[in-house]
Design a protein that fits this description.
With 249 residues, chain A is an alpha/beta fold. Chain A is built from eight helices and ten strands. Helices cover 35% and strands 28% of the residues of chain A. Chain B is elongated and about 105 Å long.
């Protein structure tokens, strides 16, 4: 199965299906999704609610396993891995950013960011250093000792991004990252994510907002558990601004 | 140490939810404080009883007449009147009873004491001079009865502190007169206050020469030509001679009382050791009983912990989901919640210990209480051990629930 190109592919899904048993009824959340994402790509997943985008997101994020099909991350087939191995992969390879930030209450930003390192078993000194660096990366090193209650929504989301980045993951997985923010702070957070991508980070963003999706290079649209479109986005814009083309798959 | 890492997480979570933590701990705090104070009360009371028995000397024996047996009907212990002054004289022979140091008989009856217009009804004890040493009595003023008083059958009396107070108020009665059952006596001494309850306390007794009591005041019954006595107190030469003393007494008394081999003793010998044993039995039962009540409150506290931990798991579903997302394993979540329950219980236990000491300090300020609340290291260890155990037992189920939450469901929850 493994071709040469697969090595450059950060993630690859092959005919992934997901079936939930809801009492008597079987719900087909995904009906055969195949998708490859290269390292450094900036991708949006769109779709109406119930289209299966959350399920796809959970599978890519290794929170869930496909019913059928295969999923490789960094060349490692994950659909048969145990819970513990999946937890390790999540810790190492994936940084999550959620709509509701999901910060722990009454704990300083620094400690929020150190959280993934706790589960990675990173020594404390080194973890503190890494957390400091990560907070600096999102421009919050000045507010490291503030608790979520003392931070604005935008700052909270930046803390969440710092937390997602702290263990140097291969992939940033953002689920409606601006859904709980006003448009100004939302733009700031998206600018930050754009900047991270520009530094080489692979970003997958789930959104229903076309304006958000516009910022990415590639938009996947899901409907009824299938990918109905997979197109390069803003090609003209990119060409016009940077003068370089975007290679579509 | 991995556990120490969870300890930090637990402390963080506890300090982030202080009110919830205090409410969770409350059951354990009260439980531990209850266990410690109830056991402390049991032990304090026991120590008090033991002390009062030991203050009379552990080498004290007392002989009582056996129960009367009229037509197969047994009377109460001591009702037979089989002990006499003859027995006392025989036991006083050191060559036959080398284990006996002092022999001090008692003849006890109730009498009315009158001074001026005040009077009181008291136990009057006829004793000899040796009684002072045998029963470890302390004279506050004047003197105790002497051998001369006995020989001359002097009408002199030594009063317990309570009796002296009742009759004479703050006046020193030594040298003054008192009428006992209408006959004039001179007060020669007053005892120190000894404490204790009711008629058994020396404070409420008066002492006169035994011959005066038997022959002049009460017209005591005779048995085989000798005046009867109520009790014979024996001081044994040393503690290790107590058994020997008992054998010597038994041999002599059976001989004097003409008992055949198949007849039972018509007297009973009590030693302080058996009294101590009884007291220890009672206090142990009491301690176990009180401890059980405390343990039940600890159990209730533990169930409270489980209750609040379960609510807390539900409340913190999103937190659990997030921890899963950033790489927590099942055992990470399990240990986090378990360590949190353990820390809560242990902290609750410590606060409970503090509270128990507070209660003990409060008890010691109540003047009418003759004993202290004794909190000993073993009950401390027991209480803290039990609170940790409660944390383990009642924390494991909520922790397992937390670790088994589906991360997707957990992240989705509002």
């Amino acid at each position: 199965m493994m071709s040469d190109t697969q090595n450059q592919r950060l993630i690859q899904l092959e005919d992934v299906t997901k079936v939930y048993q809801m009492g008597e009824v079987q719900v087909h959340a995904l009906r055969g999704v195949s998708l490859a994402v290269r390292e450094g790509e900036y991708l949006a997943i769109m779709g109406a609610s119930g289209s299966g985008k959350s399920t796809l997101m959970n599978i890519i994020g290794l929170l869930d396993r496909p019913t059928d099909g295969s999923y490789w991350i960094r060349g490692e087939e994950t659909s048969r891995l145990g819970k513990g191995k999946l937890a390790d992969l999540r810790n190492r390879e994936i940084g999550f950013v959620f709509q509701q930030f999901n910060l722990l209450p009454r704990i300083s930003a620094r400690r929020q960011v150190e959280l993934p390192l706790f589960y990675a078993g990173t020594p404390r000194r080194k973890g503190q250093q890494m957390a400091r660096e990560s907070l600096a990366r999102v421009g919050l090193d000045e507010r490291a000792d503030h608790r979520p209650e003392e931070l604005s929504g935008g700052e909270q989301q930046r803390v969440a991004i710092a937390r997602a980045l702290v263990n140097r993951p291969s992939l940033l997985l953002a689920d409606e990252p601006t859904g709980a923010l006003d448009s100004k702070t939302g733009t700031e957070v998206l600018d930050l994510i754009d900047g991270l991508h520009a530094q080489g980070l692979t970003v997958i963003m789930v959104t229903h907002d076309p304006l958000v999706a516009q910022r990415t290079q590639r938009v996947i649209t899901l409907s009824d558990g299938r990918i109905v479109s997979d197109e390069a986005n803003g090609r003209k814009l990119v060409k016009w601004v940077r003068g370089v083309g975007h290679e579509n798959t | 140490m991995r556990i120490l890492r969870y300890l930090r997480v637990a402390m963080e979570s506890i300090s982030a939810h202080k009110l919830r933590a205090v409410l969770t701990m409350l059951g354990i705090i009260i439980g531990v404080a209850a266990v410690l104070t109830t056991m402390g009360i049991g032990r304090g009371a026991a120590a008090n009883i033991t002390q009062s028995i030991e203050s009379q000397g552990t080498n004290l024996l007392s002989i009582s007449p056996g129960s009367s047996n009229v037509g197969g009907l047994s009377g109460e212990s001591g009702s037979a009147g089989t002990l006499t002054m003859g027995d006392v004289r025989a036991l006083a022979d050191r060559s036959l009873h080398p284990a006996l140091a002092l022999v001090a008989p008692e003849y006890e009856a109730s009498a009315r004491l009158v001074y001026g217009s005040t009077n009181s009804q008291n136990r009057l004890i006829g004793v000899t001079a040796d009684y002072e040493a045998v029963r470890n009595l302390k004279v506050a003023s004047g003197r105790f009865l002497s051998q001369e008083d006995s020989k001359a059958q002097s009408k002199v009396v030594v009063l317990g502190s309570g009796v002296a107070g009742d009759l004479y108020g703050s006046e020193n009665p030594v040298g003054l007169n008192v009428r006992i059952n209408g006959q004039p006596f001179q007060v020669v001494g007053v005892l120190e206050e000894s404490g204790g309850f009711g008629p058994f306390s020396n404070d409420n007794r008066a002492f006169i020469p035994i011959e005066v009591a038997q022959q002049q005041l009460f017209n005591a019954t005779r048995y085989r030509g000798e005046y009867t006595v109520s009790t014979i107190n024996i001081q044994v030469v040393s503690e290790d001679q107590v058994d020997a003393a008992q054998r010597q007494i038994e041999t002599t008394l059976r001989l004097l009382h003409n008992l055949r081999a198949d007849q039972e003793n018509d007297f009973e010998i009590f030693d302080q050791a058996s009294l101590l044993e009884t007291a220890a039995d009672i206090s142990q039962t009491m301690t176990i009983f009180l401890g059980a009540i405390g343990a039940i409150s600890l159990l209730v506290g533990g169930i409270g912990i489980m209750n609040i931990m379960l609510v807390s798991v539900t409340e913190r579903t999103r937190e659990i989901g997030l921890r899963r997302a950033v790489g927590a394993h099942d055992h990470d979540i399990l240990l986090q919640f378990l360590v949190e329950a353990l820390v809560l219980c242990f902290l609750g236990g410590l606060v409970g210990v503090g509270l128990a000491y507070g209660v003990a300090a409060l008890f010691s300020r109540i003047p009418s209480l003759t004993f202290n609340v004794l909190i000993q290291p073993d009950s401390l260890a027991l209480a803290l051990g039990f609170s940790l155990l409660a944390g383990l037992v009642f924390g494991i189920y909520p922790a397992m629930r937390a670790s088994q939450l589906d991360p997707i469901e957990a992240l989705r929850s509002e």
